[in-house]
Amino acid sequence: MFDYKLLSALAAVVEQAGFERAAQVLGLSQSAVSQRIKLLESRVGQPVLVRVTPPSPTDIGKRLLNHVQQVRLLERDLQSVVPALDDEGLPERLRIALNADSLATWWAQAVGGFCADNHLLLDLVVEDQTVGLKRMRAGEVAACLCASERPVAGARSLLLGAMRYRAMASPAFIERHFPQGVSAAHLAKTPALVFGPDDFLQHRYLAALGVDGGFEHHLCPSSEGFIRLTEAGLGWGLIPEQQAREQLANGVLVELLPDKPIDVPLYWHHWRNGGQLLEALTAHLSRSVSQWLVPLA
Q1: Is residue 69 a part of any domain in this protein?
Q2: How far apart are CA 231 and CA 290, in angstroms?
Q3: Pairing of strands 120-126, 92-98
Q4: Per its UniProt record, what NCBIfam families does this chain match (predicted)?
């Protein structure tokens, strides 16, 4: 049988990105957390953590994390039937990976009421939409919002819709770089803004316009910072249309190619055996997100 105190220590170290913060969350000393990890490793016969900064789970550690995530959710279902088992009365916490642009636009409105009604706390992990699924594969999250359709083993995926992005720049940037008008060929020769090294949206956009090869770009791993740098004229960028409505209306930003948006699909991934709370959140998102996301063509 598993000793769930040991598994909770593993989950806390990974979720809190270190032994010190894990100890604070668990109400233990750092030494006690370390001893629990060592005891877990002794029982499974191999390491469950790679001791780097932050600590990362080994392959067996990932499988144990998958297990403890699902057990937490199933325990909540049992507590709703047998309230006496819940001796702490603490709210449930879901760890979810999602992309920064969703967090900066529609996510809060979509889940705010649900969290309040279900006494739910969220632990959000921000990842680019193209790589967020790695968090589920590692067993670090119970659900994931990303652009990948294929679920990991033991999970389901649901297409929620797509975020529509438009190429935008400041009027000063356009005047400086496109005095004769915007064209795809010239766009690839001007500085761009890219969210991070895993963000290939601009590459896909230019490829769809028939332009191949690299291009100059700034890296800005912040959704808010991204739009601020675009406003300041450092480069052109692909920005969610719902995030820049005010800037477009007042002329702070201008669309470069209004007839050439690009849609990024968003799939909701969740564990098959994630319990009633995760199923309820999935159903809620399925019903409500159409007011913020566009249908995928």
Answers
A1: no
A2: 29
A3: parallel
A4: argP, PRK03635.1, PRK13348.1
Which residue type sits at 128?
A: D
Phi, psi (deg, nearest 5) at residue 19: -75, -35
Helix (H) or strand (E) holding 238: strand 237-240
User: 127, 221 in Cβ contact below 8 A?
Assistant: no
Residue 183, domain member (yes or no):
yes
Residues 6+ apart with CB under 8 A from 186: 177, 178
Res 86 pLDDT > 70: no
DSSP one-letter string for 21-90: HHHHHHTS-HHHHHHHHHHHHHHHTS-SEE-SSS-EE-HHHHHHHHHHHHHHHHHHHHHHH-GGG-SS-P
Q: Is residue 173 part of a domain?
A: yes
Range of the domain at 194: 163-263
Q: Total domain count for the chain?
A: 1
CA distance 202 to 191: 11
**Angle, vertex CA 170, rays to CA 229 and CA 98, nearest 5:** 45
CATH for 251? 3.40.190.10
Q: Residue 198 falls within a domain, yes or no?
A: yes
The predicted structure's pLDDT at residue 127: 84
